[in-house]
Amino acid sequence: MIQNIDVGLVVLDKEYRIEAWNGFMENHSGVVSTQIKGKNLFTAFPDIDEEWFRDKADTVFQLKNRAFTTWEQRPYLFKFKNYQPITGTAEYMFQNTTLLPLTSATGEVEHISMLIYDVTDVAVNREQLKSANRQLKTLSRSDRLTGLYNRGYWEELMRMEFLRARRSQTVSTLMILDIDHFKNVNDVYGHQVGDQVIRLLANSISSSQRVTDISGRYGGEEFVVILVDTDPKHAMISAERLRQKVESLSLSTAQGELTFTISIGLCGYRPEFESHEEWIVEADKALYESKHNGRNQTTIAG
C-alpha cells in the first residue's frame, strides 16, 4: 500500500541516508529504490538547501515533534517536473512536506519520515487567482483607452500629494493639458481617429514623464500630471518639452496626415490652498489662459 499511494514517502536516518523510497518517489525522480537506498540525501539531490533542511529535520530528531513546510514558503523540496496536463503552466511540481519522527522501541528517534504531497493544482489555481486579482486591481485604476490612471484613482493620488506637500512644505506642480480643437478632429476624421490621437498623446506623456511623476486622463481629451518636488519654473521646462514633442507628431489617416497641438496650464502648490480641488482649479485657470491667448502654449498660474 505504501508503495502505491499517491504521496511521496522517504525515510532518513540521522546521517541523512535514505532508508525508504516509495513508488511515488521512483516515478517522479526516475530513480528506483534499489539505486538510492543508503545514499546521502544531499549527495543524491544537491538542489536541496542542506542548511535549511537540517534545521527543519534536527528539530524533529531532537524534540520528537513533527515539522511542516508548504509550497508558499518554499515551492518544492524535490525538484520534480510537473506532468499534469491541467496545470501544465507550472514547470515543476509544487509540494507540501511533512516530517515525522519515527520512535524506536527504546523511545529514541533514530529515523524520520518525509511525506511529499503534490499540491500543484492548488498552487497554480491560487497563483492564477492572485494574478487575476492583480489585473482587476490594475483595471480598476487605469483608463481603458490610454492605460494611464483614470480620474478617480489619479485624484486620490493628487489628494495624497496635496497632504504631503502641506505637511512637508515642499513644492510640487500640477500640469493640466488638453488637445487643441479636438472637436474638429472628431468631426473631420471621425471618433476612431480621435481615439488614436488621445492614445498618441498619452504615450507621449508616459514616455516623457519621470518615475516620480503621476499622470492620468482627467476626462475626454484632458490630461493631468503631478510633477512631484518640482517648482513651476522647472515644470515649465518639462511642459514645453512635451508640447514641442506633440507638435512634431503626425498621424496617417485616410484623409491625409494629421497633426495636432496641446495647451498646458501649470500651478505650483501654495500654502493657502485648503484642498487639492483648489489646486486643480488654479491649474485649470492657467490652461484656460493658454487657450484664450492662442493655444499651443504653456501658462503658469499667477
TrEMBL record:
SUPFAM superfamilies, per the entry: Nucleotide cyclase (SSF55073), PYP-like sensor domain (PAS domain) (SSF55785)
GGDEF domain segment(s)? 170-302
Domain of life per record: Bacteria
The EC number of this protein is 2.7.7.65
Q: What reaction does this catalyse?
A: 2 GTP = 3',3'-c-di-GMP + 2 diphosphate
Q: Which CDD domains match?
A: GGDEF
The protein depicted here goes by the name diguanylate cyclase
What are the TM regions of this chain, as residue ranges? none
**Cofactor needs:** Mg(2+)
Return the InterPro entries for the record. Diguanylate_Cyclase, GGDEF_dom, Nucleotide_cyclase, PAS-like_dom_sf, PAS_4, Rev_trsase/Diguanyl_cyclase
Q: Which residues form a coiled coil?
A: none
What PROSITE patterns does its record include? GGDEF
Q: Which GO terms describe its molecular function?
A: diguanylate cyclase activity
- Cited Gene3D superfamilies: 3.30.70.270, PAS domain (3.30.450.20)
